[in-house]
Amino acid sequence: MAITILTFCPESPRWLLMKGRDTKAYEALRKLRKNGNLRLEFDELVNEQNSTTCKPVSIWTVLRKKEFRYPIKIIFVVFFVQQFSGINMILAFSNNIYRNVGLSDENVQYAIIGSGASLLLSSCIAAPFIDTIGRKKLLIYPLAIMILMLIMETIALVYKIYILAIVCLYIYMMSFDISLGVIPQSLMVEYFQQDARSAASSIGVFISSSSNFAALWLFKPVIENEQIKNYVFVIFIVLCSISLVFLQIYVVETVNRKFEDINRDLKKHLNNHNTSQL
């Protein structure tokens, strides 16, 4: 099904511009947008393409050069907290979590179905607002809700309140879905120009994959330990709280802004950070 659908998807306008196929790039953008000021957006894409180097920037260059240091730091944190927020551990070990609060095996299956339904619902609700509310707000406010839900989930585990445990996990997953589930990928595209975007994407994928492996490796023995399993979410509460403060201070908004404006703010933050260290 995916292969069939993808055959009807237009090519990336940015990629077509890189290949010098401007007319096809505009047609692809028109198919993707349907409405809005297409000419203005297309001109911005052309200006971005003209301002980049022809040769793609390597991963080592992105890690080493000062101009990429600030956005890479943000990308590192958002992809790290995406995995260490606990979402994959909850999905992978939801059976154990629901059983720990006293649910029977039969009811556990219904609770898991409800988890999937909550993720589907949040995706439908969030879609119209992702490009209007703002990246920073969609990171900060849902992350704060996630922290609160993990605290409540810990209370539910300790006192075996299964209704509270189910409700908190559903709200937690919905908050993740509209926030850390989508925003890191958006920031990775919007913080980097075309020549550095592939390298930045590779770095982001590596951070996400390695963080996911580390989180799952740490989570399994804890959830299976009878003495500490009820406090399994404490480490995620701490890491999410630290990340919340960092993101509130350092994330630069990107919605409805040109790349030149975003890049100017990133450089301003970098200069302020360097000045404060002197």
UniProtKB/TrEMBL annotation:
Its main location: membrane. The keyword Transmembrane applies. It comes from the Eukaryota. Residues 1-255 form the Major facilitator superfamily (MFS) profile domain. The chain crosses the membrane at residues 74-98, 110-131, 138-156, 162-187, 199-219, 231-252. It is a multi-pass membrane protein. Keywords: Membrane, Transmembrane, Transmembrane helix, Transport. This is Solute carrier family 2, facilitated glucose transporter member 5-like. The gene is LOC115229033. One of its GO terms (cellular component) is membrane. One of its GO terms (molecular function) is hexose transmembrane transporter activity. It is found in: Membrane.
